[in-house]
Design a protein that fits this description.
There is one protein chain. By secondary structure, this protein is mainly alpha-helical. It is 85% helix and 3% strand. The protein has seven helices and two strands. It has a two-stranded antiparallel ribbon. The N and C termini lie far apart (53 Å).
Length: 178
């Protein structure tokens, strides 16, 4: 069934509704069964802080990787990839992932700030609704899994680049021998 839907969906929509999102939603769905309706504010604040740290590092490294991919591409190689719409698709995936990481990071900062504010109140509320934690978990996991997918796409990109360089080298040798 999934293969039929996959075949009819546009490629960018298939990238959006991918294993990254499905796995993240699945984990959040499972988590929702085990997390009580009210969660400790202190625990949530700590989890949001971890999310901020992890997402900040991944965001900056990922952004640098995107800049590296864009700067190291030769015109001939980009043309070679674009004949099959691969370079545009690679960049679209990276752009989507960078936006997803940014949204997840901003959500983490917002949730951390709100929870810190609540904890500073007198008397401090001890709990918050689990929905906030589950939204954070979804964005965090989706950002992490989308990053992993983008890294695997970059590895495929590197393989294509080596195939391209090998074909150029072979073509150059055959011209010299003629």
């Amino acid at each position: 069934m999934w293969s039929i839907l996959k075949w009819r969906m546009p490629l960018k929509l298939r990238m959006l509704i991918s294993a990254d999102l499905i796995v993240s939603v699945g984990v959040v769905f499972l988590t929702s069964y085990f997390v009580p309706k009210q969660v400790s504010n202190t625990l949530c604040k700590d989890l949001y802080a971890v999310g901020i740290s992890v997402l900040s590092i991944i965001f900056s490294v990922f952004f640098a990787a995107l800049a590296l991919i864009m700067s190291t591409s030769s015109d001939e190689f980009v043309t070679f990839l674009e004949e099959h719409k691969l370079f545009s698709l690679l960049l679209w995936g990276y752009k989507f992932t960078i936006w997803l990481l940014l949204i997840a990071l901003l959500a983490s900062l917002t949730l951390y700030s709100i929870t810190s504010f609540w904890l500073s109140q007198s008397p401090a509320p001890l709990t918050q609704n689990r929905t906030l934690l589950l939204v954070f978990e979804l964005l965090f996991l989706w950002g992490i899994t989308a990053t992993a997918s983008a890294v695997f796409a970059a590895i495929k990109y590197s393989h294509k680049r080596s195939d391209f360089l090998l074909s150029v080298k072979t073509a150059t040798k055959s011209k010299v021998n003629d």
